[in-house]
Specification:
The chain is an alpha/beta fold and about 350 residues long. It is built from 15 helices and seven strands. The protein has two domains: about 90 residues, DNA polymerase beta, N-terminal domain-like (DNA polymerase, domain 1), CATH 1.10.150.110; about 240 residues, Metal-dependent hydrolases (TIM Barrel), CATH 3.20.20.
Length: about 350
């Protein structure tokens, strides 16, 4: 599947890298964001000479887009790269853009009937509030989820081991759980908030909390936040994480970021096989710059018998819509809805999560 919007956004980021911190560099980044956020494919716009009418699109961007649509590449961009003598730098950055989807591509995937269903999606199991590094209160998160038709949500603020992200102390955890109890009493029968935590996977594969602390939560997400630019093999680290009692979801497994870093290098088949044995769900993190795991890795995980979680990793209300990206990747991977925890009933979800201590 060719994603011309993604290709154009990448070319504009190439030009931004060449321009550095100059005003021109800022302009290319602005144009790249405009293209990547477009919910329409650029090809018909370019062919109809209406692409220039989009906010943030200037004459140079229009030229690059026209070359890309008509020739499949941009002689202007490639010439600029060679003239600057930065081919190696640009090619490295290009390697950090594989298997991402532009907004237009996501909209295209979701425009067709199919599963997993957007309408039947019950709730998001990775999101952050003001209790760690999020921007929203718990009460406002409930209202934002209800507007989107969700029946539940799992709050997963960061654990104390990730201080840089405002990780919660155990005293704060007790306070947050009391607040969640009040919310669940208020919205009983209408909405259910689950008590989760996003733990940090240490370099040795253990998570940054003690077992008796993990037992206070209804479900546990384990995610990598370090060694994400290294090329060393980290299979043992990731297998160790999914093998720990209490861990329910492997969050953004690669830890990759669009145009920034490749994330964890591992034998993912071995990781998926270990996760499948313990019924640990592999997350498809829909955050725009993560999209982790992507559809090809998700298909490999499905082949090895894995369960999945489709989450937004939202830190603010608008980011809750990142679930659309996760659903699009799941559709491309061919994942049956029954294997995705976000579609399960409250009873089934809790039974599965509690079982993580015995499997």
């Amino acid at each position: 599947m060719r994603d011309v919007n993604l290709e154009l956004g990448g070319l504009l980021l190439d030009m931004a890298a060449l321009a550095g911190t100059s005003q021109r560099g800022w302009g290319y980044k602005r144009a790249a964001k405009a293209v990547l956020r477009l919910d329409r494919h650029i090809t018909p716009l370019v062919e109809a000479n209406t692409f220039r009418g989009i906010s943030g699109i200037g004459p140079t961007t229009d030229r690059i887009a026209r070359e890309l649509v008509l020739d499949g590449t941009s002689a202007f961009v490639e010439g600029a790269i060679d003239e600057a003598g930065k081919r190696d730098v640009i090619e490295k950055n290009r390697g950090f853009r594989a298997h991402f989807l532009s907004r237009a591509a996501v909209a295209d995937v979701l425009s067709h009937a199919g599963a997993p269903s957007r309408a039947k999606y019950r709730g998001d199991f990775q999101m952050h509030s003001v209790w760690s590094d999020g921007a929203e209160t718990l009460d406002s998160i409930v209202e934002a989820c209800l507007v989107r038709g969700h029946a539940c949500a799992g709050i997963t603020d960061h654990s104390y081991g990730l201080a840089i992200a405002g990780g919660m102390s155990m005293a704060q955890v007790v306070e947050q759980h009391a607040a969640i109890d009040q919310i669940n009493a208020k919205y009983k029968g209408k909405f259910r908030m689950f008590k989760g935590i996003e733990t940090n996977i240490r370099t040795d594969g253990t998570v940054d909390m003690e077992e008796h602390e993990l037992r206070l939560f209804e479900f546990v997400v384990a995610s990598p936040h370090s060694l994400l630019r290294k090329t060393i093999d980290q299979t043992d680290r990731m297998v160790g994480a999914v093998s720990q009692r209490g861990v329910c979801i492997l969050g953004h497994p690669q830890g990759r970021r669009f145009n920034v870093r490749p994330g964890v290098s591992a034998d993912w088949n071995a990781v998926f096989e270990a996760a499948a044995r313990r019924q640990v769900a592999i997350e498809i993190d829909g955050s725009w710059d993560r999209q982790d795991v992507h559809y090809e890795l998700a298909a490999a995980a499905l082949e090895r018998g894995c369960l999945f979680a489709l989450d937004s990793d939202a830190h603010s209300h608008p980011e809750l819509d990142f679930i659309d990206i996760a659903i699009a990747h799941a559709r491309l991977a061919g994942i049956p809805q029954a294997r995705i925890v976000n579609y399960w009933s409250e009873k089934k979800f809790l039974e599965w999560a509690r079982g993580s201590w015995d499997r």
